[in-house]
TrEMBL record:
Name used for this protein in its record: ornithine aminotransferase
The organism's place on the tree of life at top rank: Bacteria
InterPro entries in the cross-refs: Aminotrans_3 (IPR005814), Aminotrans_3_PPA_site (IPR049704), Class-III_PLP-dep_AT (IPR050103), Orn_aminotrans (IPR010164), PyrdxlP-dep_Trfase (IPR015424), PyrdxlP-dep_Trfase_major (IPR015421), PyrdxlP-dep_Trfase_small (IPR015422)
EC id: 2.6.1.13
Record pathway: Amino-acid biosynthesis; L-proline biosynthesis; L-glutamate 5-semialdehyde from L-ornithine: step 1/1
Organism of derivation: Micromonospora phaseoli
An example Gene Ontology molecular-function term: ornithine aminotransferase activity
UniProt keyword Cytoplasm, yes or no: no
Length: 400
């Protein structure tokens, strides 16, 4: 008898239903593959929304975590520990910035960015007290806190969670004229995803990110790039901004930074920006803890080799070529960069959810978003044959 149905029921009984998972109960994993409680294997083409860029249980990361577990796990930032300096120095170097501020979840990195930008606005730019505004994009996804959902345009994420935090202006994504119009003398930051992941891997028009950079520089406004999902190798470069030749004032990082083991996020910026924070003004008990720093330092070292960015760029071409061949055969559009793709399924055929369920039955895990879109974001350790396998299974689902 299969164990999955009972395990699914068990998992639902005492939990808030804030997710609608596929009916699969995973019990072990390695590399790009996971195994469920019934021993069935699946190719993981979601990779924890890019938190597993290096695959499940990457040997170097696991060995580092084990070693650190045997030495020191938590101190709080009331004391300094011996894993902190290396992590901060090496991550700052990877980002080309002076300083980093470690937190845990992506949403905390975004909150940190918002707070730092406001303080910078008041103390450095000279914005009158309480007047700062931040410009964001329609279709954004930056997390789930009350402030962040205040500037979401997704009614599921936002409705009934008010009163909302003021101080945000929303403009259409990809529209430079609208952005220029929205920026005024009280604007402290423009906060954007260089590619909108949750929205369906939406790549902005060419020239948009350099245009944002130019507008921000001209108006003395911080460009904050939320690279929590797009960064750390996903698009074929360390940062998605890099592919447009753009350097933001602040990077927001998360997900893959924790190596798929621990939640680690960070804000990276130069001293004139992050330097506005003084003791007591921001922090987190777990942010920058020894286990997190040990694992994340190894993540930074893996990225410093360039191997994963290279794999993502090369295998991404193969993935996108395979997916483009399905346009007109069940797909209406394919977007993305590197090993990251948003696919729009012909809604006359099936919903994104049904497509994901059928892919699951064929041993491939992916996640739908916004009705008829599927996101593919396999671990960057996936092989060429496995990429072909995923595309073949999708072709079979669309042809069924
Ligand atoms: C671009 C982006 N920013 C922020 C977040 C929030 O990260 P977390 O879920 O770790 O809070 C996400 C999560 O999907 C994201 O994709």
């Amino acid at each position: 008898m299969l164990r999955t149905p009972a395990a699914m029921q068990d998992a639902e009984r005492h939990t808030a239903h804030n997710y609608h998972p596929l009916p699969v109960v995973i019990s072990s994993a390695e590399g790009a593959w996971v195994t469920d409680v019934d021993g069935r294997r699946y190719l993981d083409c979601l990779a924890g929304y890019s938190a597993l860029n290096f695959g499940h249980r990457h040997p170097t990361l696991i060995a580092t975590a084990h070693a650190q577990l045997d030495r020191l796990t938590l101190t709080s930032r009331a004391f300094v520990h011996d894993q902190f300096a290396d992590f901060c120095r090496e991550l700052a170097a990877l980002c080309g910035k002076d300083l980093v501020l470690p937190m845990n979840t992506g949403a905390e990195a975004v909150e940190t960015g918002v707070k730092v930008a406001r303080k910078w606005g008041y103390q450095v730019k000279g914005v009158p007290a309480g007047q700062a505004n931040i410009v964001v994009a329609e279709g954004n996804f930056h997390g789930r806190t009350t402030t962040i959902v205040s500037f979401s345009t997704d009614s599921d994420a936002r409705a009934d969670f008010g009163p909302y935090t003021p101080g945000f202006r929303i403009v259409p994504y990809g529209d430079l004229a609208a952005l220029a119009e929205a920026i005024d003398e009280h604007t402290v930051a423009v906060l954007l995803e260089p590619i909108q992941g949750e929205q369906g891997v939406v790549v902005p028009p060419e020239g948009y990110l350099p245009g944002v950079r130019r507008l921000c520089t001209e108006s003395n406004v911080l460009f904050i790039a939320d690279e929590i999902q797009s960064g750390l190798g996903r698009t074929g470069a360390t940062f998605a901004c890099e592919q447009e030749g753009v350097v933001p004032d602040m990077y927001l990082l998360g997900k893959a930074l924790g190596g798929g083991i621990v939640p680690v996020s960070a804000v990276a910026a130069d001293a004139d920006v992050l330097g506005v924070l003084k003791p007591g003004q921001h922090g987190s008990t777990f942010g920058g803890n020894p286990l997190a720093c040990a694992v994340a330092t190894e993540v930074v070292r893996l990225l410093a080799t360039g191997e994963f960015q290279h794999r993502s760029a090369e295998l991404g071409e193969r993935l996108h070529a395979g997916l483009r061949a399905l346009i007109g055969k069940g797909l209406v559009a394919v977007r993305g960069r590197g090993l990251w793709a948003g696919l729009d399924i012909d809604p006359a055929l099936m919903s994104g959810r049904v497509a994901c369920e059928r892919l699951m039955e064929r041993g491939v895990l992916a996640k739908d978003t916004h009705g008829s879109t599927i996101r593919l974001a396999p671990p960057l350790v996936i092989t060429a044959e496995e990429v072909d396998h995923a595309v073949a299974q999708l072709a079979a689902v669309l042809a069924d």
